[in-house]
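pls design
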């Protein structure tokens, strides 16, 4: 049996169980493919996990340390000054909890009974007290990262908008504009020399969380139904399952 993949989750963590939480990533999974979401959260079998991006995690950890220095000093990070963002990293007793995976900031949604949660990368605050939601990203592309204009960036945008929604539901005033702190590793150096050099850019996103409420209601209806929802047209996981199942059935018929 694989030590990395356990196909049967403890029922307490499934929908209806005492520990079920609707995380930001689960909302994203529903938007990506309702069938995979249903199999995961209602039937208790998640997609096989991918390998962790340890390099990305290292960049995130270093960003957090760097911004925490300015948080403690109540000073603006040079990146904020470079892009004209009048803010400093937000000091709050729960900032570490908000940034911790499997904890994060949460909200009990009255209409569905869901505890909705998400772990944010950072929060900045303007002099007016308005909060700015911040997400760290890292990649390695030839072009400078100045905009999130690809179709697959929609998931990043919904991620930020979910965080904005969560902070608003916790009573905070939140700016519609959030920022992605993007670290882009250079590949044009003559040699590796045991180090990577990054170009860091600040990419704004004008968020709109109006989709969150109707999506939560749709998720509730999905989970309360015994009908398995349709797969997304572009879901590779569902396509793989369907094709393999058909081939296995055909092979069993041949073997009889």
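designed seq:
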């Amino acid at each position: 049996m694989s030590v990395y993949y356990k196909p049967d989750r403890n029922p307490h963590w499934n929908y209806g169980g005492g520990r079920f939480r609707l995380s930001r990533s689960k909302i994203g999974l529903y938007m990506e493919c309702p069938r995979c979401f249903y199999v995961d959260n209602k039937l208790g079998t998640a997609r096989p996990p991918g390998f962790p991006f340890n390099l990305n995690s290292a960049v995130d950890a270093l960003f957090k340390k760097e911004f925490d220095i300015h948080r403690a000093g109540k000073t603006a990070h040079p990146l904020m000054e470079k892009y004209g963002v009048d803010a400093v990293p937000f000091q709050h007793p729960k900032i570490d909890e908000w940034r911790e995976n499997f904890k994060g900031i949460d909200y009990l949604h009255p209409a569905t009974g869901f505890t909705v949660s998400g772990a944010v990368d950072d929060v900045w605050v303007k002099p007016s007290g308005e909060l700015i939601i911040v997400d760290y990203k890292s990649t390695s592309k030839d072009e400078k990262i100045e905009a999130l204009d690809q179709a697959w960036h929609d998931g990043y945008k919904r991620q930020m908008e979910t965080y904005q929604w969560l902070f608003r539901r916790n009573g905070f005033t939140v700016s519609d504009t959030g920022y992605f702190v993007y670290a882009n590793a250079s590949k044009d150096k003559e040699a590796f020399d045991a180090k990577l050099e990054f170009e860091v850019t600040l990419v704004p996103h004008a968020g709109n969380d109006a989709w969150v409420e109707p999506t939560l209601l749709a998720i509730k209806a999905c989970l309360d139904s015994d009908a398995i929802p349709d797969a997304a047209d572009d879901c590779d996981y569902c396509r793989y399952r369907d094709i393999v199942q058909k081939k296995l059935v055909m092979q069993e018929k041949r073997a009889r």
